[in-house]
Design a protein that fits this description.
Helix content is about 40%, strand content about 25%. It is of the alpha/beta class. α3 packs antiparallel against α7, α4 runs parallel beside α6 and α10 packs across α11. The chain is globular.
Length: about 500
């Protein structure tokens, strides 16, 4: 069984003897051992990051951009390998994995424009013969703590921009699927990135706490559940760090009576069951408005039954397993709670088995109807292939459901009415809004982030929000008096 080490100062290395088994979710069998890093590992990472960052911060943005451009080319060249690494350890289909790597790659492409993105502002004559301008400078050492569900894309939301801005970056990936992060670090080194600028440290909560309490780390970026995001935010802020902590979600997709129903159903199927529902932008609640509900539920059920659930090695797979045995049990418990609380179970994904993969962590597509807002399955994030349909009498009731929920990550509406669409995009209290699209994920040159219990901190990730998060603003006000060596050659013309 292969051993997964850390990536410190350009080399694969670890000092701790503690290890954790990494499973193949399709079979339930261990495929690797990942090191659970010690204080010694962490101290080596800090030492490496601190020394390298001083030199890197003085490297011109243009040179940083050229290294990032080389890195972009290497990711494109190795995208199939990276996707396979993701699929093997996470379980998602190869097409889904490749798509996620591509979305991360787009952030690298955005970061290549860093010479332009770091340009400041200038005002001449803010006072008599006084000019003022602003510049953005790096923070120092930045850290990222990332989840299991997107082991390529989510880290790439963070470190390319942080590094482009002149910082060094320490990544703590999920211990459930860490290999892709290490391969990305190797490729960055191959692209010409100096040793120590991008370090990867594996581990569990012990390493997380070392990051949060380190006086050498200036900022922490996090994506995960809301309780952990809140803990990350509070602990980091207490230690004087800049924080962006993205939490959980309960994304609603509103289907109006005038919607293109086939498009809406296709969107719900892809956004609700894709990646086995293990994504913060998954559509977990479909809000059926008016008399469209019965037909909507029938069509979702029909299409869900057509989905092929199988290992990622099956090129025809639509949906793979969930990440672990514990998570499978958690999802199945939520389904049982939904039945107990009175929701109508239209399609039951519990105890889903595939011949030859009986020990895999598979949960089939699950559909509930007649869900109410006081039910557990409506209030809490399940993070699995479970879609709940809640019925609303009219648009007003539908948007109130969206706005009254504790989470505010993403939402969508399907309608042919421009007035309704405009009202929804303006008045929904949600960070990311879609119209006739199921997953309103912004492109890399915009920024990703929710509202309410879905985001702790002042900045979203990537785009210009990312540039601002990973830099400090400095404003200079300057006046130049007449030179003390003022001879005739220093006299200014009168016009």
């Amino acid at each position: 069984m292969r051993k997964i080490h850390n990536f410190i100062n350009g080399s694969s290395v670890s000092f701790s003897k503690n290890e954790l088994i990494v499973d193949d979710p399709s079979t339930g069998e261990g495929i690797a051992k990942v090191v659970l890093s010690s204080v010694e590992d962490f101290n080596k990472v800090i030492e490496s990051s601190k020394k390298a960052q001083v030199i890197w911060s003085q490297t011109t943005p243009l040179k940083r951009s050229r290294i990032l451009s080389n890195y972009k080319n290497l990711i494109e060249k190795n995208i199939n390998e990276l996707a396979s690494i993701v699929s093997e350890e996470h379980g998602k289909t190869l097409a889904d994995a490749k798509g996620s790597v591509t979305r991360g790659l787009e952030v690298v492409e955005f970061a290549c424009g860093i010479p332009h993105l770091l340009k400041g502002e200038f005002s001449q004559n803010v006072g008599t013969n006084i000019d003022s301008w602003s510049i953005r400078q790096p923070l120092g050492i930045c850290a990222g703590i990332t989840p299991f569900n997107f082991p390529a894309m989510v880290p790439m939301w963070m470190y390319p921009i942080a590094i482009a801005c002149g910082n060094s970056f320490i990544l703590k990936p999920s211990e459930k699927d860490p290999s892709c992060s290490l391969r990305l670090a190797e490729l960055f080194s191959e692209a010409g990135l100096p040793d120590g600028i991008f370090n990867v440290i594996n581990g569990d909560k012990e390493v997380v706490n070392l990051i949060l309490n380190s006086q050498d780390i200036s900022s922490v970026s996090f994506v995960g559940s809301t309780p952990v995001a809140k803990y990350i935010y509070e602990t980091s802020a207490k230690n004087g760090k800049r924080v962006q902590a993205l939490g959980g979600a309960k994304n609603h997709l509103v289907v109006m009576p005038d919607a293109n129903l086939n498009q809406a159903v296709d969107g719900i199927i892809g956004a609700g069951y894709g990646s086995a529902g293990e994504r913060c932008m998954a559509i977990s609640v479909a809000v059926a408005v008016g008399d469209i509900a019965d037909e909507l539920v029938s069509k979702i059920h029909s299409e869900a039954q057509k989905l092929k659930v199988s290992p990622w090695t099956d090129e025809n797979s639509d949906m793979g397993p969930v990440i672990s045995k514990e998570h499978k049990e958690k999802i199945e418990n939520y389904i049982s709670i939904g039945v107990k609380e009175g929701a109508t179970l239209v399609e039951d994904g519990r105890k889903f088995k595939i011949q030859g993969y009986e020990n895999g962590y598979f949960v089939g597509p699950t559909l509930f109807d007649n869900v109410t807002k006081d039910m557990t399955i409506y209030k809490e994030e399940i993070f699995g292939p479970v879609v709940s349909v809640i019925r609303a009498k009219n648009y007003d009731e539908a948007i109130n459901l969206v706005n009254d929920h504790d989470y505010g990550n993403g939402t969508s509406i399907y309608t042919s009415d421009g007035e309704i669409s405009r009202h929804f995009t303006t008045h929904s209290k949600i960070g990311m809004v879609g119209v006739n699209v199921p997953i309103p994920v912004p492109m890399a040159f915009h920024s990703f982030g929710g509202w309410k219990q879905s985001l702790f901190g002042d900045h979203s990730v990537h785009g210009m929000e990312g540039i601002h998060f990973y830099t400090k603003l400095k404003t200079v006000t300057s006046r130049w008096p007449k030179s003390i060596q003022s001879g005739p050659e220093f006299v200014l013309p009168t016009n």
